[in-house]
Amino acid sequence: xxxxxxxxxxxxxxxxxxxxAFSGLTGYMTLGLMAKPKPMAAQTGESEVLxxxxxxxxxxxxxxxxxxSNTIExxxxxxxxxxxxxxxxxxxxxGTVAIPQxxxxxxxxxxxxxxxxxxxxxxxxxxxxxxxxxRVTQTLPxxxxxxxxxxxxxxxxxxxxxxxxxxxxxxxxxxxxxxxxSTPTDRTAAAAEGSTIWEITMKPWSEQLDELVYDGQYPDxxxxxxxxxxxxxxxxxxxxxxxxxxxxxxxFRAGKFDDAIDTFIDLDFNPAKVVxxxxxxxxxxxxxxxxxxxxxxxxxxxxxxxxxxxxSTDTKEKASQxxxxxxxxxxxxxxxxxxxxxxxxxxxxxxxxxxxxxxxKDDDTASVxxxxxxxxxxxxxxxxxxxxxxxxxxxxxxGSTLDAVGITPHNQHQQYPPLSKTAVEDLFALPDAPxxxxxxxxxxRYAQIVDTALYKAYLIIRPTLxxxxxxxxxxxxxxxxxxxxxxxxxxxxxxxxxHGKGMHAKALELLREISEDETDLxxxxxxxxxxxxxxxxxxxxxxxxxxxxxxxxxxxxxxxIFISEDVELPAQPVADYLEKIDPxxxxxxxxxxxxxxGENSTDFHDRLAALYLSQTLVAKKRGDEDLLRGMYDKLLxxxxxxxxxxxxxxxxxxxxxxLFEARAIxxxxxxxxxxxxxxxxxxxxxxxxxxxxxxxVPSLMLRT
Length: 704
Prior knowledge:
InterPro entries: Clathrin_H-chain/VPS_repeat, Vam6/VPS39/TRAP1, VPS39/TGF_beta_rcpt-assoc_1. With 704 residues, this protein is α+β, with helices and mostly antiparallel strands. A four-stranded antiparallel sheet has the order 1-2-3-4, with no helix packed on it. The protein has a four-stranded antiparallel sheet with strand order 5-6-7-8, with no helix packed on it. A three-stranded antiparallel sheet has the order 9-10-11. A hairpin with a 2-residue loop joins strand 5 (80-84) and strand 6. The protein is rod-shaped and about 155 Å long.
């Protein structure tokens, strides 16, 4: 019961109402001009009191200082005021509160009509505002049970509604109802009718929250929700999550991208719904029109107004003409300055830039303006930068969680269908929940959505980082981004993406397409050769198929595919493949296998000897002396020095030929020296070789 002095700030704005021009005056000047309104106070919290002064309400704490920077502004000094948490009830005099207009005149016609004073209620008004947001939530003119038409604006010929003095009967703060006493201002009516007690009850909290959400007042809904106990509202956590998401969408639409993304990260929100807020250039088939953002995130669907059906039709037609396609936006990124901004203004996100349009430039002033003011970073790029922050936050967490359940980018398609085969509705239906509570398939879908959107975002704002993203294992859905990469001629990144996904056929076909534009043979073939050299034996069929065109172009360069040190391919199928193309390629491969790799299998030694023989006979038949000399020399050296081939087998192939020197060597190695010597003397008539042969066979020396 102590008295303290409270200093309230000076009014910051003039109020419109009964006080008119004098509402900004305070102190003794006010007292000299008109009756000073009675002061009122009401407790709004455990440590806060609302105090009225003229047309303003100040929130004061126990230290006599203001607890809030904002104040309540009434159109006139309230006659009565009380608080029923979380609402502030004020009785305002007749002729001070404006009647809201249901349908304001169009902006195009406002300049042709003279300005009009707002219509005012002719009776006292009970105004209800939120103590949390200070926003007026309800306006009830007296009599409270009269239909809307009974409130007659000033200046009309209809009979006025009898007014009454209203008095608020203070209720217990814990109760959700309030009593109000009304007494007719006319003494005769007051004596005849007496006073009336009105009971004002509060709707259930769930209905109040639903109304705020329906009206798009998400901050107010959150403030109200935070003031409630979970025992009062059992589904408080679920409502809070939904309203926070809707508030984030509202912030996103207002250009507060960072605040929105922070909320989505905190809520572990479904990335499909986040990506859906972006144009098709980023979101692909997940793109959702602006008018469907709220229903997508759990809010009420918009209600069509019959009176605006024609206007909505015009708007849709205009939107269909102005909507920017993905390809258009991608092309626009390459443009500079105002041209990019003008095109982005036609997209859903570009509309955010309309509040700050770029000033027009003519030829005479363009250079001056460009030097004076740096170009503004457009809203579209800023929004995509914020999306990248969301995606890069999700990406490593998803990767580690998927790794823990045994799903990798390489085996994902073995267990689950690709993302492109999943309906958009199913992706939007994925839960908003921590990663630890998701199933393996849900985790995979999250990862695929995140990486696919990250690719598209990098393609627009950070194209130089694409290659690094493509070279690592990722969950990107190729079908969603390959057309964009092709249109931007990002062939290297697309090739790396194909390779990372194990789509080697597509990667090699892409390299073949690119090679058609090259004139230098090495530049034409080398990329495909290097790619094929790194494929392992599990891709042997693909190697054979993709190498064929390279062999048709240059056999020597193509041969390098099969003698690479990077991987070791199975020798038998490689030899079969090369022999079908050209037996001499098979000979080169077998020589490499025996000489460089030290292959000891008799099968390969026998095969090389047989190839030497067959190619010698082919050259002799064709009359190709150079080939004959080369192959026959290799055959002679091989059968004379190699001890891992089947001598009997090869001699069976040679016995019917006129390759006498080869036959002589084989006969000697079989121990049939007499026959070998006869071939040197009588068939070859090479007496020097016969003389050289004799000393190596002691039995022949004795006979000689």
